[in-house]
Amino acid sequence: MNISKLIDGKAAAARVLQQVKHDVLALQTQGITPALAVILVGEDPASQVYVRNKILRAEECGIRSIEHRLDADCPQDRLLALIATLNADPAVSGILLQLPLPAHIEETRALQAIDPRKDVDGFHSENVGGLSQGRDVLAPCTPTGCMYLLEQTLGDLTGKHAVVIGRSNIVGKPMAALLLKAHCSVTVVHSRSTDARALCQLADIVVAAVGRPRMIDASWLKPGAVVIDVGINRIQDGDRSRLVGDVDFDSALPQASAITPVPGGVGPMTIAFLMHNTVTAARQQAQAQVQPHNSPSEAACLSAY
Ligand code: NAD
Q: Which atom of ligand 1 is nearest to the CA of 210?
């Protein structure tokens, strides 16, 4: 394998987390301790693992974490009341509502209840709208992590043609917005696109966020394309199961100039940028107290990693 082509997400995430720790220490000297409230509704096993990892990582960074576990049959009003309490608590910098939620809870309503200034996942419509206007807002963690990897690999992205495969609210759409903000020409392909492969063959940058194991092989790629594989798919391989991406790594590797592996590519970046967003939220809230006339968006100033 050509190791020099590998985009090492573990190492990149470690660098981001190092910066987060440094930023936490700097805030602490001003009497500010960033705090992340994590809400888990129900007992979904995968969600429990994600929440545990987020809390562990927060603690490693010096971010206080507050876990709120609600029963799977918790009434929606109780969840909304908890979010309102956390919104009003000045000691809470960020609120993360672990998805998916049980079916009886309206996901959009719950996400919209989070104060946009504490919306460290970047899912509130105020942050989504701000991102689509190219403003510096709290942006979703996975696409922000992809941008970091791309900028570390390619430097300035101006003028690059990027194809994003997938149009979800969590990955595909914010990814496209961030690439546009970085002055790329962006094409988004999805399940109803008529010839996704032909469009993808024109791309300097391919970001795959589909959820279909190894769908993208070398035939989708222009020689020298940079490939970011967001997909995390568990497949059965003989008598053991393992994780693969949306990209057929072995096929794509010779064609790509750089590529993220799965695991060890985009995955570690998501938690790293959750921590980054929590510290950013804490800093912006502290600044807003000093400058009360600024609106949250005016106060927003996402430091360049
Ligand atoms: P999603 O199911 O919400 O969206 C998938 C998208 O793929 C849709 O927009 C759909 O139109 C598109 N699609 C489906 N079939 C297609 C096809 N044949 N051609 C082109 N487009 C097609 O999924 P999601 O939440 O965006 O996640 C995508 C993948 O990324 C999943 O594997 C998920 O596990 C993974 N993921 C990883 C991280 C991470 O931290 N690395 C975070 C979020 C999601």
A: 7
